[in-house]
Fold each of these.
Amino acid sequence: MGRFCVSLTHAGDNPDKATVAFVVANASVASEKETMVFLSTEGVRLATDGYADGIHEEGFQPLRKLMDDYVGNGGRIYVCSPCLKKRGLDEQKLVRGATIVGGAKLVEFLSEGAPCVSY
């Protein structure tokens, strides 16, 4: 099956990178890879329910649809706990499929040989 990681550090501050990250994540899931999107720094904002609703980069599907498709097809969204807390975001208002984790989860996933792209 294989594994694949997408590390995303952007949200509304760079909608192009945020969108492309989920396009690639969807391609990975469609290729039957065990796929993780790891949200850190500003990227954690995407884990907040409603945040991605207004992000629509020209030439792509709306970001919220890309995220919903990704999770609906078995993709996992991991959210950096310290990054979420630093920004004062509500842990109780996360999008479907988002799980709060520490950096150790990313290290574990990558240490088992998963390639990773970063946006």
Amino acid sequence: MNLLIVNGYDKNGWGKLAKYGLQPICEFYRDQLKIINSKIKTTFIYPSMNLDENYDESFIKSFTGIVWTGSSLNIYDNTREIKNQISLMKKLSKLKVNMFGSCWGMQLFTVANGGAVKKNPKGREIGIAYNININKYGAHHPMYKDKPLIFDAFASHIDHISQKPNSSNVLSDNHYSIQSLVSNKFWGTQYHPEFNFKYTGQILNARKNILLKEKLFSKNQIQGLIKDFKRPNNKSYSQSLLKDTLRHKELKNWLSYLRKN
């Protein structure tokens, strides 16, 4: 299976995380997919870093599926880096290739297909998205095969889908926002099924000053959480976070879908 992984970050956004020692997002995503299927082959592209790169139809269609990573970008800023990704997403959508988008990937698909994304008035959801509820449609969709109907997931976002894309169906939500949707050959989650405790803890550490400024945590709280994410207490978190087989379920189900389609 040959997958294309699209890096959602621009140089500035990734640079702010890289100095905290995070593994490059494409490599991390690849490694998580390889936990599910060690034989997966991947290629990375960087549309918000390599702004003049063009990807023709034959290149895109040479892949079994396409994965879109998260990002620190806000789509309503409408910079050249963002416009470049919107343009590519529109192209991929017209080609009707199989895609999976985490967080930014779902937001990008939404805007490229007639929906809207705005800053969430409820503020930032970071660390863990609690009590995600799979609705009746989602309960029968292959994305959530063998997934608990209520679960927690790792998350890091301040924006939300305020208007869903054309011809799409919401699969899950929580008190904060729409948490997943599907449309034709696109599957997307607002949370990150690829993240784990270590990687999420590194993101919390990198964004610590922002979180303190926004008063989401006290200094002791954020330091305690970062420390706990290094060696999580099994009694403090749900199995949907602790067990890779549950955490990866959406990605595993997508890979199974690719094999059948």
Amino acid sequence: MEKVSGKTALVTGSTDGVGRLVARKLGQAGARVLVHGRDADRGARVVGDINASGGAADFLAADLSSLAEVRRLADEVQARVDRLDILINNAGIGTAGPHQTSVDGFELRFAVNYLSGFLLTLLLLPLIKNSAPARIVNVSSAGQQPIDFGDVMLTRGYSGARAYCQSKLAQIMFTIDLGAALEGTGVTVTSLHPATYMDTSMVRRAGVRPLSTVEEVARAILNLAISPAVEGQTGLYFNGLREATAQAQAYDPDARQRLQALSLELTGLSAEVAALDR
């Protein structure tokens, strides 16, 4: 582990599974860690573990299925800290379960796995830029499926796997565009498939036998978050510790533009940007 004393990190979905381990390791390495989750008791336990190991941590509660909650989380981060060196968008929902919609009426996996991170990242971007050099890591997956822009919310032919894979490709497409937009700012953004069938509750709920340890997964995420070996690398997708190629739609500029326009509209950011331009 690289020492990250003096740095501040936000890890979404860090009261369980790999997020919890990543948060603990960052705290042990000297970072101030903002632990995020929905359950205050579990959050308090993670914060207690980090503080007991000599680190520093705070718990921030938010339900990422609600865009209003995402906005509140961003406001709380900015009120709590004056810098954000590392943002790890780790929170997510797996493939198990029926078609569900978010508080805002969006397909739940698209909302939690992708839209929440899209909105949170853009709301926190001024703080992250002011903390440069800084890094953003989007925890995606090798499970990727092209987005059907005629039915993004999957009202026809729904499956949990299809919803999950679409949301994970959207994360990668966002990473590519944001990497280009942040060129020269000192902020890098990468995405990754951390490991196959990791030993987490998400995988077990899907009825799949785990093939990778949580420690392997954490190592891959932390590599992008703090390792000098990937310094300056941005807009890229990794499989574990190595750069990889994502599903073909990720490299289609027209598809990425459509996704960006839709995402700005669904999160309300397009109206805010237009208001600033007036």
